Amino acid sequence: MAPSSVALLALVVVLGEEGRSPRMQYHALSLAKRGFSVTLLGFCNSRPHHELLQSDRIQIVKLMELQSPAVGPPVLRYGVKVVFQTVYLLWKLMWREPAAYIFLQNPPGLPSIAVCWFVGCLCGSKLVIDWHNYGYSIMGLVHGPKHPLVLLAKWYERLFGRLSHLNLCVTNAMREDLAENWHIKAVTVYDKPASFFKETSLDLQHELFMKLGCTYSPFRACSEPSGPAIERSAFTEKDARTGVVTHLCGRPALLVSSTSWTGLSDLACVLAHHGRGEYELGEGCLETGKGPLKEHYSRLIGQKQFRHIKVCTPWLEAEDYPLLLGSADLGVCLHKSSSGLDLPMKVVDMFGCCLPVCAVNFKCLHELVKHGENGLVFEDAEALAAQLQMLFSKFPDPAGKLNQFRKNLRESEQLRWDESWQRTVLPLVMDTRDCCRDCCPGRSTQSGVN
Fold it and tell me: Where would one find the signal peptide in this protein (predicted)?
């Protein structure tokens, strides 16, 4: 299905970091591939994926991140920030050519939902809200669930969420919660990995490890190569004469934990495992990402006297991150949802790379991680330590559980984002063309979506 000639413009709005909003980047790419001219608005402190930068149908507009005033009561400072963000976002949107559709990420939705709805009313745009989580539940982690700001944010999301033409969400649990408690009819569109998340060839693994070894010592070889023609990393070696790359005999396992370095990712769980399990395990542990608590946890890690574990906490280039996941032996996910209703995109990416996962359990994790099939689910640090000990006890045993999980992932249907988007989202979006906002706000068909 292709968009009509009068519906070729779309805005994708992220009142947050573009580079850390992969789902909205994928929306932009999929729209562009279907003939839309796309304007992606968001903060640009981290670089979006190169496919967006190379597309001649996608224009990236940088939004300025406004800070709260440094003086005054917290509620007043927050209120002033919201007012300025409202005026600023309204100005940036009104200077754009009127779009047929506005795709908006929530959270953060305050004040972006109201502003995008207002702009849509003025310009005739259809508003599509993609619910990743609830903004009020994230605020509740800081202020408490009964704080007036949290209650106001909840009322705001419920009110303005009903005014959109189409609501997408990330899990069936969230879809049911929106319908039951907010009277918002949404469509579940599961996250799927992009096409560039796949297993990494041994040649590319070696190139990546050598590149990272220039900056991060855990990737460097622990012993000298056996000859001048041999190039060695901590995990691989390459014979320059033949160009053949092989895994090092007795190489360490590579464990990756992609984290946002916030209170939702309980790094203490991993630290506790390191303290108890390092004498039984020989492994390399890589914790990637950015976030407000990275320095705090990095200091804690630095205080540990590990004998058999090397910990590395890099921030990877967008192109290197999929290569790393495709090179690793196990992923660990420490994501805990503030609402219990969203799923970690990092696990979706790992599964796209056929990387088995150990994930901390929460309400709807079963919609993604199947315990004993594509990975393991744990409740606490002790359970994680036991799982890692079991998985790595005979590493790299080709008949071990890790390889069985990887085999299951290879054999399962690995539907990619763009194919899924074309099957599910595009028909729904195009169905809103003749929908009247006054008669059916927040309503959409759910047929064929899973």
Answer: 1-16
